[in-house]
Amino acid sequence: MTEQEIRDLLSEALESLFEIEPERIKPETNLYEELEIDSIDAIDLIDHIKRKTGHKLQAEDFRNVRTVDDVVKAVLKMSQNTQ
């Protein structure tokens, strides 16, 4: 997947799973402080990404994620490592 495809997937997930307005989703947006994503939401997001990409983000990898861009980079790295 390309970086843009991952960004689009993440935006769609945040909008559909958590009803977050698209204009609030920017690369620098903090998932926990600005979008109020909690640990249960993070698990739902990881599961959604797995279903859409076929790749599972490890919880350890997600622990270091803070912003939308961090998620994009983690998914991109994961998808490149499995190719």
Automatic annotation (TrEMBL):
Transmembrane segments: none annotated. NCBIfam families: PRK05350.1. SUPFAM superfamilies: ACP-like (SSF47336). This is Acyl carrier protein. PROSITE patterns: CARRIER. It comes from the Bacteria. It comes from Aggregatibacter aphrophilus. Residues 1-79 form the Carrier domain. InterPro entries: ACP-like_sf, PP-bd_ACP. Signal peptide: none annotated.
